[in-house]
């Protein structure tokens, strides 16, 4: 059964991919066996993270990139993790699917990931979903997240190339810096670049990027001007993405980056297993029995946690 | 030494509080001993979480609340965890401090928490900081976070009362719902309520809050209109906060809520200890030796993690 599902996923069967991702999302029986079967078929896809503040136009840019990549003959997977995006959440996914023509339908797989309720574990699930898409033969996987929360930034950073999308209205460059976006961008996009303030933002961005550039760095971070709603700048953006990929490969940096991501993934796997093994019924009972004493300040949570260990 | 520091904190000494928080933030030697010494002095402060999208005016509302609370004779602690706020980050904290008069200076302690670089652990550190402020005799602790990321929402939710701040421009009510803000708010604020769209947002909010209200619920979630920049509505907001506190206490719900928060805190403590204990030099070496085989797809991360355990 699992082997059959894995084979179908590897052949690119859409309903098998959807089923596999659901297994992972809901941690159904056998989901980790499935991931094990698929893992040797991964490593081909190139992961592009697209992040930025709410309302910057990330979804439009993602859609433009999908179309361009498909036109060039590539197969594309998309993972949308954006709590503020109207595209996120099953109910509204239809909006996005409706705009697909047949060619898109055959070569694109789009999946939204629920961010609410799934306390933690989101970044692990996002990684596992990208493995399924990777194994299914996608050439590029776009991961769209809103770059405000720490966990969302972490997800964008599991990509090979991270694109940070800004708009003149999204606040000054100092706010961008403070929001941690400055550190994670391999490419910056100024979207809605026909609006006022776009030149000033460009100058401020370039200055700050130049200032933070390490003296041993051999690459200047590009800033691309776009008007995504008119599909202006998509070619240039893709060009910069591919150039960044070539740069990473030629310098041996892609392997280093992926190694770091794998280490992070293994850390998360270990933690979740440690937690599951630790919280036996016995320990849960001890916690239940003592919680009132901690509430009453007879016992402190630090000593209690140590006594459990 | 630690005992002395704890005693000074309990007396409300400002530099001792700052030192204690720095110990916790940087996990300096003895920080958990300090928390143990302080724990029996906590439980007095009432925790108010203030969250909402960037630009909604959370900092202004927080400042207004600080002034009002101090005027009423209360001691106030503030923890600002907002990656997009200009108040967050040491460099710009001065802006906030400069507006303080002597009375504020004596009764208020404000601390910004860095969110970048501290992968995870932020919610634990926020909780521990609030314990230090609590032990120092603060009556109210305001925790200001930007409500977009999952981890930031989690932090807001460690409060006794969670206030969600919206503005007419911050997107429609559906987006608010999707962003998970609808579920966590005990009180909603429509800030900048003189602007267009504020009535429509109010109607939509009330409708949705009413729809999601459980049939056994005995409390309607209030929606407060404010113009924070003109300090309009602060009294009403505080009134609703105090009424919510009375409601929680009279129904025995405050203890239940705090118990849940404690369980979450203990879970986090356990996880961080499990991780520290697990990653011995030996295991780190095994990981280092095998990571290339995983990159080469000879081994998958799932089997590898299991073999480590």
Provide the descriptors you would attach to this structure in a database record:
homodimer, 309 residues, alpha/beta, seven-stranded parallel sheet, 7 strands, Rossmann fold
Summarize this structure briefly.
Chain A has 309 residues and is of the alpha/beta class. Chain A has 15 helices and seven strands. Chain A is 56% helix and 12% strand.
Compute the separation of the termini of chain A in Å: 40 Å
Protein chains sharing the most extensive interface: A-B, 67 and 68 residues
Strand arrangement in the largest pleated sheet of chain A = 3-2-4-1-5-6-7
Mean pLDDT of chain A: 85
Helix count from the secondary structure assignment of chain A: 15
CATH topology of the largest domain in chain A: Rossmann fold
**Oligomeric state of the chains in view:** homodimer
The overall strand count of chain A is: 7
- Give the low-pLDDT segments of chain A: 84-95
Rg on CA atoms of chain A, Å: 21 Å
Shape of chain A: globular
Which secondary-structure class do the elements of chain A indicate?
alpha/beta
Q: Name the CATH superfamily assignment of the largest domain in chain A.
A: P-loop containing nucleotide triphosphate hydrolases
């Amino acid at each position: 059964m699992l082997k059959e599902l894995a084979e179908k996923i590897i052949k690119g069967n859409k309903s098998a991919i959807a089923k596999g991702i659901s297994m992972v999302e809901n941690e159904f029986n056998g989901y980790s066996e499935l991931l094990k079967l698929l893992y040797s078929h991964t490593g081909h896809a190139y992961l592009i993270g697209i992040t930025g503040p709410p309302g910057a136009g990330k979804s439009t840019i993602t859609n433009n990139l999908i179309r361009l990549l498909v036109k060039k003959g590539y197969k594309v997977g998309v993972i949308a993790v954006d709590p503020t995006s109207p595209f996120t959440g099953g109910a509204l996914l239809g909006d996005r699917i409706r705009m697909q023509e047949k060619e898109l339908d055959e070569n694109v797989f789009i999946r939204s990931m629920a961010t609410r309720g799934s306390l933690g574990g989101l970044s692990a699930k996002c990684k596992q979903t990208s493995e399924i898409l990777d194994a299914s033969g996608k050439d590029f996987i776009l991961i769209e997240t809103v770059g405000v929360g720490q966990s969302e930034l972490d997800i964008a950073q599991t990509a090979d190339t991270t694109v940070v999308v800004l708009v003149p209205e999204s606040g000054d460059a100092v706010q961008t810096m403070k929001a941690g976006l400055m550190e994670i961008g391999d490419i910056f996009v100024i979207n809605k670049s026909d609006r006022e303030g776009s030149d000033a933002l460009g100058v401020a961005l370039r200055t700050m990027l130049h200032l933070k550039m390490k003296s041993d760095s051999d690459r200047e971070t590009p800033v691309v001007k776009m008007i995504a709603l008119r599909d202006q700048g998509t070619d240039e953006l893709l060009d910069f993405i591919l150039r960044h990929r070539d740069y990473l490969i030629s310098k041996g940096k892609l392997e280093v980056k992926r190694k770091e991501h794998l280490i992070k993934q293994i850390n998360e796997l270990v933690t979740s297993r440690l937690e599951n093994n630790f919280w036996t019924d016995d320990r849960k009972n001890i916690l239940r029995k003592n919680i009132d004493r901690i509430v009453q300040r007879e016992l402190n949570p630090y000593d209690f946690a140590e006594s459990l260990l």
